Every structure is written in structure tokens, then in C-alpha cells.
Amino acid sequence: MKYPGISLLFTTVVAALLLSACETQQQSSQSSSQSSSQSQSQSQSPSSQSASDSAASPTQSQNSGSESAASSSQLPSSTSTSSPSPGATPQAGTLPGSDASSTADGEEMTGESGDRAAGSPTTGSPATGTTISEGSGAPMPGNSASTGTDSGSGSSGQNGAMTSGERVEALDGQLNESLAVFDGMILTERAAAQAMGDANPAANQGDSGAGMGDDTGTAEGDGAGGEFGGPLFEEADLGDESGPGGPGGPGGEDGAATDNTVAATSGAQGAVPAMPGRGKGDGTVPPDLVDGSDDDIVARQIREAAMAETDPALREKLWDEYRKYKKGS
Amino acid sequence: MLIDTPMITAYPPRTAKPRFLRCIAPILAALLMLAGCGTTTVKSTTFTHLEQETAVIPESQLLDLGVIPFDPGLDEADEDEMVRPEVRNAESRYFASQLVATLQNSGAWGPVRVIPGVDTVVDVYVEGTILHSDGEKLELAIVATDASGKQWLNKTYEEVASVYAYDKRRTQNRDPFQGLFNRIANDLRQQRDMLPAGRAEELRTVSQLRFARSFAPDAYDRHIRENRKGELEIVRLPASNDPIMQRIERIRERDYLFVDTLQEHYDTFKRQMDPPYQSWRAESYEEVIAARQLKKQSTARMVGGIAAVAGGILAATSSNSATQVGGIMAAGAGGMLIKSSLEKRQEAQMHIEALAELGESLEVAIEPRVIELEDRTITLTGNAEAQYAQWKALLQQIYDAERGIDAGQGPAAPIEQVQ
To answer: Of A236, B175, B207, B264, which residue is the least packed, with the fewest Cβ within 10 Å?
Structure first.
């Protein structure tokens, strides 16, 4: 060998070139395999509504598990969709608003009804919160009522169709929410009824003047008598009963709940309605005009206007008019 | 031979006119007396007391009773009655509330409430029609049926207020027609006492199954059926641990709440309406009696006057001078009676106009209350009905899910909440 160094150098260079070429080919083959695995996983996740797809997706997800694990950093959404995890993270990520809204609704209902929400054991937000925390592919019944769109895709994406028990549980949650909303509406209406009754003191004065019951006097139940603070009734009583198996069954249940309802909501029967003060004025009546039992409509109106008048000068004028009218009649 | 014939003096034939005059004279006298007579007023203080239940009724036998706002009876009212539609509409609610209060006081029933209609399920329904209502007389037609559709009562009640009914010193602030409502309550209680043993519990079950059927027809449609008489009878009972029935019981509690809330509105309305309405009754009583008395006097005097004038004309044509003078006097008296009759009629018309003014002032006083009550009850009833429709759909889905119907088809579309 005339030039051994040169040949050695040439050999080294050629080997290096060959090695670099081989590495390049390997990298290109790896990138092509990654793209194929991504396309397979994306096509499987949205279509897993049916049982066959749901059966296929775990297999495919298993097959692409290595690729998905490798590409998890790049495509977190697809990874999380294809590999079922305890649905807390994705569900919490997708339904925070609904959860918050349902929680807010639950809090609002609680505020309106006091102990009522506590009395009803399965209101919307606790059931919803429990379902979310359990996860494992279970649907979100309360959130389905709130969001209205995500429940189907959310539940289907987990383990396929709901079982009948899960569905009943979901519907029970909706029913509980609806009952709570109705309770709130009823309380609002009762407060409005009480306000209407308190806003008409002259009308309340008529209770003693007219006589509505028997000859013993008025005995009409006062339904607006400030019974709104406590719970409307105890729902737990219904669950303790044996059920409406016989003639006595519904009577027992109805009796307990009805009595609670009537006692708690309508006030005791026979309660005398309260008589607030007369009008906005001090209601003083001149000593010579105490007896107004023989007043006609006009005289009564003048009398009531005088009693409700706050301006002393105007009140005196009204009483003078009343005297004139009484003398004239 | 001459025959003596007696002289026969030709007298003119007797005419019937004096006999006619002798016949009509007592009639004229009676009419004249009648023209001067006044009408009688009811001064009886007879009052039907409410029979209160003294025995303790087991809770399982207590029937809840619903009184539907009465039919104002505007279609059956005569034109002469001067019926004010707004007053009648208000009275339809007022009388229903008054009957509810009376039935509550009897202590013979469970909850007694004013209900919006027959769609609200209760054990016994009471409906009424106002046939006549003013300060003097109240007439109601009452029909009571139980939950199975069997009629308990179909009767007309009438009461005429006495002159002392509006004397508060005597009546102790009692409603002038409270006796009528007491009679209704007593009759209903009598019907309830005549129920065979076990019937009360059966009625409660029927009403419960009716309510259940209205919310879950697929589940409970076969539990009750209608017999040949059109009455509902129980076919089978639900299971003691029926979960659907438990849910329905929870819904029924809300229904009770809804009815209780409605009752508060009706109670408030009755309290608001009471003062002007009682005043209207007292004053209309005076006006009605005065107007009727004057009308009768006017009619009687008119009849007497016409008869006197006719008799006088007939007598004036007589040849007897005394009869002629009597006839002229009778005709004159008849004329004066006719004039008096017209004056009485004018006075009666004044009282009728006063009645109309009283009705108008009462309408002005209570119309806002009626509108407010209708607004609240219609709004509340509409909200409740919308909510009931949601619950009905939910129960149907729950029923289907519990039986595996629609399994595997995915969750159904959620139902939007009514807010």
C-alpha cells in the first residue's frame, strides 16, 4: 500500500456516510408509523355509540396503546378519549360549567327553601356530584339536564349504553331537581299570597265585622300566617311507610304527609287571622264617631280614608266631611 | 058579554146591569183593599246550626273535599234581576270559600279546599251554581260527587234573609246566609255518615289510583275501571313497595301544596271582598224589599184603578141616577188609583236605580281583586300544569327504564326545566 493513511481515511469517511444514511432511513420509517396510528385512533373514538364499536375500540386502543402512549404528549385529547380513564379528568374538564351551574342551582334552591333541600335526600346537585366523583364511565344525569347536549356523547363514549338502573337513577335525579324547583315556586307564591294579605289591612279588619264561620264566629284557617320558615314536609316519612298495599296504606301515608303539609303550610285549621293595624295612618277615631256600624258605602269609604290619612289637617277635614254626611243621611 | 081583563101595566124589562154592578162591587172593594195592603217581610229568626262532628274519625277514613268555584249562573239569570256579571264572578269564588270554611268548621272532613276544577284529584267534589243572589235571597244549586263518580247530592238550597239578618247586635257578625251553608254542610255530612263500612277507605284508594293513573297511565290504567254505572271501581292494588307509586306520592304531596297555595289566594280574596260585599248586601236588602213592595202596590193599584174605571163607566150608562153617580165616583177613584200606581212605579224605579248604583260601586271595589285573584290562580295553575306534564314524562321514562323498554338505545333527550 503506497498510501495507507489515505485509504484508511477514505474507508472511515465512507463508513460514516453509510451510517448516517441508515439512521435517516430509520427515522423516516418511525414517523410514518406514528401518523398511521394517530389516524386509526381518531377514527375510532367518535363512533363508539354502538356495542360493536365499543368492543372494537378497546382492542384498537390496546393496539395503539404504545403509539398513543408515545404520542400522549402531542395529542392528549385523543389519548384520553381512546384509553378510558376514570372519567373525572375529562368529564370535569368538559362539564365544569354545568357542574357549577347545577351546584349554583342547588344552592339557590336551598337558600329559598331553607331546610327543604336538606329534607329531600336526593336533590340535583348532590346526586350529580356523587355521579361525577364516581366516574368510571357513568353518565352525568344532572349535568345532562343542565347542558342538554353532552350527556349522550359523554356516556356513550365510556362503556356504551346505560343500564336500566343507571337510567332510572339519572331520571330520578331529574325528578328530584324538578321537585325542588317546584317547591321553590310554591314558596314564592305563598310569600306573595302573604304579602297580598298583609297589604290590605282594611280587608283584614273585615274578618271581625263580617263573620264567615258558624255563629261562633270566624274560624277560617289562615294559610298565610307566617309558616314559611320551616320545611314544608318531611319526605323521609314517605319512605318509611309500607306503601299503598291496602286501603289503609294510602291513608297512612297521606295522613302523615298530608297532616304535615296542612299543618306546616296552611296553618292550623281554625286559626284566627291576624289583624294588622288600620291603614298607614294612626287610625285614631274621634270619640263622637266611634260607632260606624251603620255606615253606608260612602260613609265607610270616607271613614276609612280618614283613618288611613297621615296628614292631620287633611284627616280633620275628612272627619268633618264624615260628620256632615252622617247628619245629612 | 064583556069580560073584564085586568089592567096590565107594561113595565120595562129588568136588565142585568144592576145585578152586574152588585157582583163587581165586592170585587172592587177587595181590589181596593188589596191596593192598600203592604207586603210582608220575613221576621223569622230561624237559623240552621252547623252540626259539628263530635266523634273521632280515624285518619284513614277522613275524606278530603274539594269545592270548585261556583258557576255564576249568568245564563240562567232573568233580565229583571239586574245581575252584575263581575259581582256574580266574585260571588262564585266567595261562596266557594265560605262553604269551605263552613265544612272545615264541621270537623267531619280531612282537608277542605277550593280547587280549580275536577282535574284536581280529591275524594269528594262539590260544585254549585248561583241561581239567585241579592241582599234578600240566596239560591244555590249544589251537586256533590265522590272520586268514583257517584253522586252524593243534587239539591237546590234557598234562603231568605230576615229583617234582623243585618242587625249586627242580633246576629253577632254572622253572615246573613250562613244558615244556608250550614244546611249544605249538614247534608254532606249526612251523606258521608250513610256510607257503608270501608267505603271511605275505598274512596281514598280510588282517588289515589286516579291520581297515579293521571301521571303514569301505563302503570296504573288497569288498576281501576269504570263499571256500567259509570263509576270507578278498584280492580287491583299496587304493590306495597311499588317504586313508581312512591314517586307518585311525592308528586301528590306537591299537588297538595299547590292546592294549599291556591287556597291562600282564595282566603285573601274573600277577606278583601268581605267588607264592601257585606255593605252591598245590607243596602241592597233594603232596596230590593222597597222596590218589590212598591211594584206590588203599583200593580195592585193599577188593577184596582182599571177595574174601578171600568165599573164606573158601566154604572154611568145606567138609567138609575144613583147608579150613575156611583159610577162616576168609582171612575174618579179608579183614575186616582191609576195615578197612584204610576207614582208607585216611579218610586220603585228609583229603588231599582239605587240597586244598580250599589252594584256598580261594588263592582268597582271588587273587580281589581277578582282580576288579581284570577291572575294569581291562572299563573299558578299554568305553572303547576306545565310541571305536572314534565313529571308525567319523567315517570313514563322511569317506568319504561325499570321494565327494560328502550334499553340499549341510549339515554333520552333531557327535559328542560321550567324556571
So the answer is: A236
